[in-house]
Amino acid sequence: MSASTATTWARALGFHTSVLAFALRTALAAFAALLLAYALGLEHPHWAAMSAWACSQPMREHLLSRGIYRFAGSVVGVAFAVGLVLLAQESIWVLALGLAAWSALCAFLGNLQRGYMAYGCMLAGYSAAMVILLHVGPVAAIWPFAWDRLLTVVTGVLTAVCISWCFAPRRRTAVLIAQSRKALACVLQAAIATLRQHAAPAPVEMAALLSRLAEVEELLELYPEGSRTARHTSRAMHWQQHRALDLVYHLGLLQRAEVAVDLAPEVPAEQLARALASLVQALQAAPEPQQAQALRQCLQQAIAACEAAVAAVQAAGQAVPEVLHALYLLLQAMHSGWEAEQRDLQGLRRPVPHEQRMAPLPLHRDWVGARQAAVRAGGTLLLLGMVWALTEWRLVAFGMLGLSVMLLVFSGFESPHRTMAFVLRGQLIGAALALLCQTLVWPWAQSGWQMVWMLLPFALLGGLVFAHQRTAAGAMDTNMAMFILLAPVFPQTGGWTQPLSMALAVVSGPALAWLVYRGVYPTNAQRRLQTLARMMLAEVPALARRLLEEGRPALWPVGSAAAALWQAQLHHRLLRLVRWADKTQWPARGQLHDLGLSLRAMQTALLQLQQWRRDTILATPALRRTERLAVQALQRTAAWGGAARDPRQQVRLQAAWRALSAQPGLPPALAAQALQVAQRDIPALEALRQQLP
């Protein structure tokens, strides 16, 4: 049968043909890991098969990175488990309390991380649970049990890496780079339109720009895994995103004010527009080696044209427009990014020279979700641990093991309670396959080796379940549940009741987790979006409180590094918010561009107001009155972030900023900013705040 005929038959039977080869080779890797672990005499060889499934990934870099984090997380988790067992001295109460606290800590840290680092933190939590809850016997027996856990993990990871490395392709670097360049090209096109037509882009166009940048941001989540070169490229792209959003912000301010870019007649605006148009054309081409130098030349020409425009503005005695400054910084970031992207496209593995290394940007961390995940995981396991301590029933401990995996690994998912439905279905399939093997196949085995070889068809069935369209969702849990129940111990004892009770204990994990996710801090995509929006809105009153606490000396002078980092974090959060809004089709997503504009504008006004307070000598009654009104505006801004939503707060807040803007002692530019805060920014933020529960 030819390959095309086999593909046609597989597609007709409902298999994902692109996944089928990966699933079958992973299934063979899992069986090979089980075979090797059994040959080495490890007590739980089926754990090696689970590790092989858990760390296998379609791409080489992700395969290596996930394997490293699985090993590191297992080492940390097993080390904690050994220490806790030795400390508890067979006291179930101590074990339950320690495991709950450790799970809460791992859930908290894992929800603050990105990529496979989050997986490593979660794994440290349930690896400790596996050792603590499955350990039976005296305290001294914990050492061989812990070593068995580590050796099975190492066996599974190495087997999966060795087998999958021969077939897994490298990451498709050009795909992400091409998408990033096209998004940047759209931003530059908006700048060209502003330069040529003397008009700012429409709000609809600005919202589309944010959506394109947000798509790139989502792809950057796992891109740096497994490669220092890709990590450097990822940082460069984050800087490009930051500078692009800065330019979008200033274009948005022009759109709000309905004004043109104020350039002197002698400024070569058309020359800059033509250079940017050539750059846009180069960015839209495929990122191939023969196009590299052409893109670099276009970048250099655009930078030179921008510098010429800046020089002409300064020669005319004018201040450089913020749009032009933001455009120049974006072009510089793109030039630095070009160096990183070329190293990545060429597959260079040498360390990046020190002078070319990109500094990391402060990205968004979900502190609220992390706290909720910690309370959810720690509290639930503590409650079940108390039941275990009171009853001393081993099946409760086994159920806690499955629940700990569900509450840790899936806490960062978009909608954990919906995911639990697929996980439960997958584990039911895995438990059914395990029972089928234990009751109908293994009784025919004459030795332990025969039991192991009889697992081969079931391992392949797990691969087929993984690749089929109807069972793909939750198929990973099918294999994990099947292998955790299939411990090849000869002779098999206990009849069919013990395997059935163990299977019920395993599938109880996702069922209980579904109830927990529904009842304790219920989370879905809509709630994550609302939580992130509330975090962004809370930044304004929090900044006002910090400025009040420091008194007159400025903590963050305008243009300082701290203010720039605050803006970078705001930009990253805005992109995450836009992506959540696009996924959920949030009705208010059209206002997100105004949200970003208002947050940046209020932050800038607060910092510049504090700068004025620091630099001004209050020598006249008018200046002292302006200072009192500035403090009042800060106080009301800080109070605006309170939990109680009093409609009068907005009125008082707007009145404070409007009164401040009318003071003659305030610089004209700052007075205009204060008036914009009162008339536009506060109503825009309050409108969004009212839509959040």
Model description:
With 693 residues, the protein is an all-alpha fold. Helix content is 76%, strand content 0%. Helix 6 (116-134) runs antiparallel to helix 15 (394-409) and helix 10 (228-257) runs antiparallel to helix 13 (322-345). The chain starts with a helix and ends with a helix. The model has no long low-confidence stretch (mean pLDDT 85).
Brief summary of the model shown:
The protein is mainly α. The chain has helices at residues 3-12, 17-39, 46-55, 60-88, 92-112, 116-134, 142-165, 173-197, 203-219, 228-257, 269-283, 289-315, 322-345, 367-391, 394-409, 416-441, 448-453, 456-467, 475-485, 497-519, 525-549, 561-584, 592-615, 621-640, 647-661, 668-690. The radius of gyration is 30 Å and the shape is globular.
SSE layout and pairings?
Layout: H1 3-12, H2 17-39, H3 46-55, H4 60-88, H5 92-112, H6 116-134, H7 142-165, H8 173-197, H9 203-219, H10 228-257, H11 269-283, H12 289-315, H13 322-345, H14 367-391, H15 394-409, H16 416-441, H17 448-453, H18 456-467, H19 475-485, H20 497-519, H21 525-549, H22 561-584, H23 592-615, H24 621-640, H25 647-661, H26 668-690
Helix pairs in contact: 2-3, 2-7, 2-18, 3-7, 3-19, 4-5, 4-6, 4-7, 5-6, 5-14, 5-15, 6-15, 8-9, 8-10, 8-11, 8-13, 9-10, 9-22, 10-13, 10-22, 10-23, 11-12, 12-13, 14-15, 15-20, 16-19, 16-20, 18-19, 21-22, 21-23, 21-24, 22-23, 23-26, 24-25, 25-26
